[in-house]
Amino acid sequence: MRTTQRLDDVTKTTRIDLNSDMGEGFGPWTIGDGVDEQLMPLISSANIATGFHAGDPNIMRRMVLLARTHGVGIGAHPGFRDLVGFGRRHINAPADELVNDMVYQLGALREFARLAGMSLQHIKPHGALYMHAARDEALSRALVTALQQIEPTLRLFCMESSVTFQVARELGQPVVREFYADRDYDLSGSIVFTRRVGALDPEAVAAKVLRACTDGVVRTVEGQDVAIGFDSVCIHSDTPGALALVQATRRALADHGIEVAGLAGTTAPAQA
């Protein structure tokens, strides 16, 4: 969670959660640079792919054990049933069908967590499904209602500007607001969704995160600043050069006295 303290009327962020999507391969295939093992010690929350957009039982089991080794909180990362499109293509399906898919995926990871003596701390829909829920009240309401029945204390990752956030707050589901370090924003405070991301400058990404943490704003594609509220910073593991992005971001945060800490307040391991 983002923790702040007030000094001489200036709000200063002192700790922040850092999350990344993990286990986004399938069998022998990997997505992105294949750096899950190097990334896991540097983050505090892992969103583990649950089989529909990426991931399989063996990968899920390995990611859970890796997260346990490094003291990283784990969450289910359910997506559209779209392995070919990596879950970044929209599927037009009824809300109840999509929620059933998410509950199915959540249950799969929950069992692997139990097998490792762990519990899930959060759920974060993936890709196009995340963006669909962000603007679709019927889907967000159906998802949160289901969570209220099966996992009422499970944190739901979403953007502050999303319908998902509004519905979760209304129904009392714990939420974690995200800031996307490796995505552009528009004036609505939402990310600009894309299916493919090119290589980014690690120092520029680190500066963007630091500015969001210290000033509470982000520069939009329209060239204006908007206020941004968040509890966790996301850097996607499939973004080219993801390891360098996380390393640069951690250096920038540490240089300004901001520690990477888990949602439950557990400090993530220091950067090697």
Description:
This protein has 272 residues and is α/β, with parallel strands linked by helices. It has a single domain, classed as TIM Barrel, CATH 3.20.20.370. It has eight helices and 13 strands. The protein has helices at residues 36-39, 57-70, 95-115, 127-135, 137-150, 163-171, 202-215, 242-255; strands at 3-7, 10-22, 25-26, 29-30, 45-49, 73-77, 122-123, 155-158, 175-180, 217-219, 225-227, 232-234, 259-260.
- Write the H/E string, N to C: EEEEHEHEHEHHEHEHEEEHE
CATH architecture: Alpha-Beta Barrel
Note the main sheet.
7 strands, parallel, barrel
Structural class: alpha/beta
Function: Catalyzes the cleavage of 5-oxoproline to form L-glutamate coupled to the hydrolysis of ATP to ADP and inorganic phosphate.
GO molecular function, one term: ATP binding
Family: Belongs to the LamB/PxpA family.
Catalytic activity: 5-oxo-L-proline + ATP + 2 H2O = L-glutamate + ADP + phosphate + H(+)
Characterize this entry briefly.
With 272 residues, the chain is an alpha/beta fold. It has helices spanning 36-39, 57-70, 95-115, 127-135, 137-150, 163-171, 202-215, 242-255, and strands spanning 3-7, 10-22, 25-26, 29-30, 45-49, 73-77, 122-123, 155-158, 175-180, 217-219, 225-227, 232-234, 259-260.
Features:
single chain; 272 residues; TIM Barrel; 7-stranded parallel beta barrel; two-stranded antiparallel sheet; 8 helices; hydrolase; EC 3.5.2.9; nucleotide-binding; 5-oxoprolinase (ATP-hydrolyzing) activity; 5-oxoprolinase subunit A
